[in-house]
Amino acid sequence: MNVFRLAGDMTHLLSVIVLLLKIRTTKSCAGISLKTQELYVIVFITRYLDLFTKYYSFYNTVMKLVFLGTSIAIVWYMRYHKVVKQTYNKDEDTFRHYFLILPCFMLALLIHHDFTVMEVLWTFSLYLEAVAILPQLVLLQRSRNIDNLTGHYVFLLGAYRALYIINWIYRFFLENHQARWITWISGLVQTALYADFFYYYIMSWKNREKLKLPA
Fold first, then answer.
1. CB proximity list for 149: less than 8 A, separation 6 or greater
2. pTM for the whole thing?
3. For 81-98, what is the mean pLDDT?
4. DSSP assignments along 169-190, one per residue
5. Residue from 127, 101, 128 nearest 182 by CA
6. Residue 16 to residues 119, 157, 184, Cα–Cα distance (Å)
7. Tens of pLDDT, residues 93-147
8. Average pLDDT over the chain, rounded to an integer
9. Sign of the alpha-carbon torsion through 63, 66, 71, 74
């Protein structure tokens, strides 16, 4: 494992910690898209089915369990916690996320490495993760008040994928020289969706202003 892969994993983990910290300490999920979080649950379930069939390393297994468990916990808080669920912005979180699932699955059936159940579901998880942030970004555009923890969470989530792209470049030139087009293109699409947010996040930090996205 190279330093960019580790940095990507730690940034991803930190984004989850920031989100859980926000929910636990403020007893609020205001500004967080439940639909994005539900898509992430689907992403991790379909990607980590190999937990039951293949062992890679202790680190790999622990990270998979952490991301799977925390994604489910976040959805539980937003749906069922008696205090937190009352702060959910249902009227603003209106992106029809179910329209993302079927196209991603159909694309995985058509474009994959191997036509096996595990490989198709893994490919589906890549396609779905690439667009899972869309409901969250739409919600932030509609929100008048983006708190710091929510802004940090989304920034870290985007930074994790950007670091993974650097990891892929490093591995291609210095390790195995294998082209992984499905992974690469999905990652590039995912990172590109954050570009606008990155700009306004950095500008708000630079100018010491409250983060606000254009409607």
1. 18, 19, 21, 22, 26
2. 0.92
3. 92
4. HHHHHHT-----HHHHHHHHHH
5. 127
6. 26, 8, 23
7. 999 998 999 999 999 999 998 899 999 999 999 999 999 999 999 999 888 668 8
8. 92
9. negative
Long-range contacts of residues 119-125, Cβ cutoff 8 Å, at least 24 apart: 121/46, 121/47, 121/49, 122/46, 122/47, 122/49, 122/50, 123/182, 124/46, 125/42, 125/43, 125/44, 125/46, 125/47
Which amino acid belongs to residue 19?
L
